[in-house]
Amino acid sequence: MSLSLLNRSRDLLQRYAPGFDERLAAIPPAQREAPQSEVIALFKQHGPVGLLVNREAGGLGANILDAVHVQIALGARSPSLAVASTMHQFSVASLLALTQNGGGAEGLLLAAVAQKRLLLSSGFAEGTSGAGILDSAMQAVHTPEGVLLSGSKKPCCLGQSMDLLTASYIRQTPGGEELMVALIPATAPGISRNPFWQNSVLAGAESIEVRLNEVLVPERMVFSAGYTHQLGDVQTVGFIWFELLICASYVGACAGLIESVTDAARWTAHHRVDLAADLQLAISALEGAALDIERNPQDLPNVLARLLLVRYGIEQRLAQLSDQAHAMLGGMAFITSNLSSNGLMACRGLQFHPPARISMATNLDTYLSASTFSMTGAHS
User: Fold this and answer.
1) Residue 315: Cβ-neighbour burial (10 angstroms; 0-12, 13-18, 19+)
2) Which InterPro entries match (predicted)?
């Protein structure tokens, strides 16, 4: 059986990646989420890798609403894959924003992503405790040949399967500190990988430590994302895509847990409908946020503020929903398998992605009274 609230999402995944959902469903759930899971390899071979790249460049040309539903569908099958693929898609979206700013090489890279099915991983500082969400994760030394980057990203999703790593560093200019984005081949000399993730939940996302030791990046592979004291369009677009798709991934994870409840016809119709009502509320909130982004491209900072409010509301809703679904699956499901418990804990992951609600309270409170929003100074 299939939860009807997932039908649209799965239909769209089928449109953009025919047969991929069936391939995922054929893998036992525990294997999908295991450390040696094959879901990322399947995604690279058969999944919607070029989802956000326009059709002219060989991509799938999905709009923002369709992308939300694709992530929901992925989350329902494999939370690990949904989280990992979010890092890829948001990196692609950031490159798209760079091309709209007049870049040239970025467009060629996007075409290669779509046509050669390249996976991008994020080396930004979003996983570093206490780091500003705009902070650079790398130290840079400029040379005549390019930029030497050193540093570490942990956790780094897609760390084993990535083809390209996106990393950031600060360049000092007369106008202030400029956030630079570097695109680095995963096979570049100086890159090493180390184990990092110790939790059995989301273990299939390939979240490892990636270290850079004086990795040379040619200038043609370095692009500006704007000044750190002013959230530019490129950075804003990147954050919007990240927040939207990571929310969709966890809503999908919760939908998958609820699907287990409805498949087993647990408890009463009244209880199951209550679960579905709250799940639909979360899905509809994401759909509304996607439309807000699409319809207000000239007001992105305030769109981001509203999206963050949606995200924090969904965080609370998912905690309640997953608790109830876990209880409804019952004691025997808890005793005989880790599936229900891992599903419960996977739904909690959203709160650990930046920016944490507590770090944004002052910024959002200012927005509520002044109708203007800035993420400057926010910390993860």
Assistant:
1) buried
2) Acyl-CoA_Oxase/DH_mid-dom_sf, AcylCoA_DH/ox_N_sf, AcylCoA_DH/oxidase_NM_dom_sf
